[in-house]
Specification:
The complex is a heterodimer.
Chain A: H1 2-8, H2 14-42, H3 46-50, H4 64-72, H5 83-113, H6 119-128, H7 134-148, H8 154-178, H9 182-190, H10 195-203, H11 208-224, H12 227-232, H13 240-248, H14 257-290
Helix pairs in contact in A: 2-14, 4-14, 5-8, 5-11, 5-13, 6-8, 8-11, 8-14, 9-10, 11-14, 13-14
Chain B: E1 4-13, E2 16-26, E3 31-35, H1 42-50, E4 57-62, E5 65-66, E6 77-80, H2 92-102, H3 107-121, H4 136-148, E7 154-158, H5 166-183, E8 186-191, H6 194-200, E9 203-208, E10 211-216, H7 218-223, H8 228-233, E11 240-249, E12 252-258, E13 264-272, E14 283-288, E15 293-294, E16 306-318, E17 322-329, E18 332-339, E19 349-355, E20 360-362
Parallel strand pairs in B: 3-8, 3-9, 6-7, 7-8
Antiparallel strand pairs in B: 1-2, 1-4, 4-5, 9-10, 11-12, 11-14, 12-13, 14-20, 15-19, 16-17, 16-19, 17-18
Helix pairs in contact in B: 2-3, 2-4, 3-4
The chains are: A mainly alpha, B alpha+beta.
GO molecular function (chain B): ABC-type transporter activity; ATP binding; ATP hydrolysis activity
Family (chain B): Belongs to the ABC transporter superfamily.
Pfam family, one (chain B): OB_MalK
Chain lengths: ~290, ~375
């Protein structure tokens, strides 16, 4: 891929090149600016922020706001900090991502290698779920969760996110497995491997890139979800996005901007980490579905 | 008792019938090649033997046990795929023993079987590598190793050589033939390459349009093709098919064609006139193989009927071992095969010897061979 990029890159002079890099650097700074401001202000005492200058570096560096946001800040009515909600989110995201990814992979496997009558229609319907706006399902979903006895629980949120996630994860894996040689599956069948053995021993070991894509996508979406968290969770199962809202929008007391900034960074950190760790597989995985090799 | 019995087998996809009532009996140790153009149903038939496609009607039996509905892994067969289908995430050794592992064979026995096969195919040094690190020929060997290690009743080959370059293909062809001679296993082999079919098989089934056109030994197929399709498909360059008129004089029959100038030429036929009764003066299709049209010195000395004629040479194609010439008879291109050193040039009027011993006659309407 790098060879191809070199070949197609325009030949440019030194001046033009400098200008291009300068422009790119500026744009990068522009994009990083909000995050930078958040970090800077989270490291200041509140007096420096209310004193007027949000853009300047802290005169007195302090981690007090970070500590407060994590464990003592007022969220709703309780001074618990973000900590319990952070774990709520983890407890919701990890199973939801794992289940929707595995189910998506199984769906993709069945839809490409165990074709049956009407499989394309079924796939079309599953794709449709990617385009259903969240708001439409709020009330029916609340009813279903109530009937299942999952209302206001983390398990209920996991169910909602798995149901919504399957559409995308199936799409990813189906397109990836569509170019996976069927002869391999047939060879494994003749070797005596069954449905699940073929899946675990033959397909899964070759599915690294698309699994990473699916995990990043699902993790980001589910972690960042606010609507379902606000609608279906109780106080003891609310995810961090809801807690952040409650922290920032509390109508009593002084607005502690430095604590709000620190809280927002806590809420953004896991998705950032996932991108940094697995990001380079992201493009590779997206490409490998369309162009083999 | 036949080893592999394909009895009245039909394959339908919805309303479309792609294989029509196929009957083949394969004896133990036979090397049967299914050959035909793409879409003739040969791969479908192979997949049905393998159990990868359902049989719409009829039965396939191995060792007298009907195989309809039996899972592929329980048929005691092994298959070599066109793309080799090696598991990319496993080493060569794992690839070879995966089937045994799935059948619950203990590790020591698996390793012993793997060593034996690796020795036989000379792939010992490759056992720890991944398929991606192997060349085409090596992958081919590993794919065969994976089939051999199971010690199956029947081997199925699905165009195994078509992904190799020309030279390697010839080498692997010889290898497969050696392997068959050494092990004496029963093989069903699918190819679209008629040279592979001729060289490897003990019997050939030529297929077209879902029908078996002819089933026979390579010699039968080559010398006495059932119909025009088989005649044209088998042999390279393919058989010359000329419009001719039958002339019967007493006990002798002859076919009349014209040379490049349109002058009539009479070619005596190796058939008794009785077999062509009632066809005097009618049109037929005369089939002559290129190797039967030679320079006079290259003619087969033991041939019974050789006709000498002069004809204009349009094109010469020296192939090293032979020189192919194109000339015109009955207004059509005719290919002949001369010795490499024959002195012919394009545009010459050259002496040609036509060996009529193996000439065949087809009915122009039914396209079947007469007699």
């Amino acid at each position: 891929m790098s060879v191809a990029t070199q070949d197609t890159a325009l030949r440019t002079g030194r001046v033009a090149r400098t200008l291009i890099y300068l422009f790119l650097l500026l744009m990068a700074l522009f994009y990083l600016l909000p995050f930078g401001i958040m970090v800077i202000n989270s490291l200041k005492p509140l007096s420096e922020i209310t004193g007027g200058n949000m853009m300047s570096l802290p005169q007195e560096w302090t981690l007090d706001a970070w500590r407060a946001a994590w464990s003592t800040a007022q969220i709703g009515v309780e001074p618990t900090g973000m900590r319990p909600y952070f774990w709520n989110s983890i407890k919701m995201v990890v199973p939801a991502v794992a289940i929707s990814t595995v189910l998506g992979a199984l769906n993709g496997y069945v839809l490409t290698k165990w074709r049956f009558r009407g499989d394309t229609i079924l796939f079309g319907l599953m794709l449709f779920s990617c385009f259903i706006p969240f708001q439409i399902v709020l009330i029916p979903m609340a009813r279903v969760l109530g009937l299942m006895g999952l209302a206001g629980t983390t398990s209920g949120l996991i169910l909602v996110h798995v149901v919504y996630g399957i559409g995308f994860s199936t799409l990813y894996f189906r397109n990836y497995y569509a170019v996976f040689p069927t002869e391999l599956v047939r060879a494994a069948m003749m070797d005596g491997a069954g449905f699940f053995r073929i899946f675990w021993r033959i397909l899964m070991p070759s599915s690294g890139p698309i699994t990473v894509v699916c995990i990043i996508w699902q993790f980001t979406n589910i972690w960042n979800d606010f609507l379902f968290g606000a609608s279906f969770a109780d106080f003891d199962s609310q995810p961090i996005t809801v807690a952040l809202n409650n922290l920032v929008n509390s109508s009593t007391g002084v607005k502690e901007y430095n604590v709000h900034f620190a809280g927002a960074i806590y809420a953004a950190l896991p998705t950032l980490l996932v991108y940094i760790v697995a990001g380079r597989y992201f493009v590779r995985g997206l490409m490998s579905g369309s162009v083999k090799g | 008792m036949s080893f592999l019995k394909i009895d009245n087998v039909t394959k339908r996809y919805g309303a479309v019938e792609v294989l029509h009532r196929v009957d083949i009996d394969v004896q133990q140790g036979e090397f049967l090649v299914l050959v035909g153009p793409s879409g003739c149903g040969k791969s479908t038939l192979l997949n049905m033997i393998a159990g990868l496609e359902e049989i719409s009607s009829g039965t396939i039996a191995i060792k007298d046990k009907p195989m309809n509905g039996v899972h592929p892994s329980k048929r005691n067969i092994a298959m070599v795929f066109q793309s080799y289908a090696l598991y990319p995430n496993m080493t060569v050794g794992k690839n070879i023993t995966f089937g045994l592992e799935m059948h619950g064979v203990p590790k020591e026995d698996r390793d012993r079987a793997m060593d034996k096969v690796a020795d036989m195919l000379q792939i010992k040094p490759l056992l720890d590598r991944k398929p991606g690190q192997l060349s085409g020929g090596q992958r081919q060997r590993v794919a065969m190793g994976r089939a051999l290690v199971r010690d199956p009743d029947v081997f199925l080959f699905d165009e195994p050589l078509s992904n190799l370059d020309a030279k390697l293909r010839v080498d692997m062809r010889t290898e497969i033939k050696k392997l068959h001679q050494r092990l004496g296993t029963t093989i069903v082999y699918v190819t679209h390459d008629q040279i592979e079919a001729m060289t490897l098989s003990t019997r050939i089934a030529v297929m077209n349009g879902g029908y078996i056109q002819q089933l026979g030994t390579p010699k039968e197929i080559y010398d006495t093709p059932n119909n025009i399709f088989v005649a044209a498909f088998m042999g390279s360059p393919s058989m010359n098919l000329l419009d001719a008129v039958i002339r019967i004089k007493g006990p002798d029959a002859a076919a009349e064609i014209t040379d490049y100038n349109g002058h009539p030429i009479t070619l005596p036929l190796p058939l008794p006139a009785a077999s062509l009764a009632g066809r005097d003066g009618t049109k037929v299709v005369l089939g002559i193989r290129p190797e039967a049209i030679t320079d006079p010195d290259g003619a087969d000395k033991s041939a019974k009927i050789v006709v000498q004629m002069q004809n204009k040479i349009d094109v010469t194609e020296p192939a090293g071992s032979d020189t192919f010439i194109t000339t015109t008879m009955v207004g059509k291109d005719v290919i002949g095969r001369m010795r490499a050193d024959a002195h012919v040039n394009a545009g010459d009027i050259a002496d040609l010897s036509i060996n009529m011993d193996k000439a065949v006659i087809f009915d122009p309407k039914s396209e079947d061979r007469i007699v």
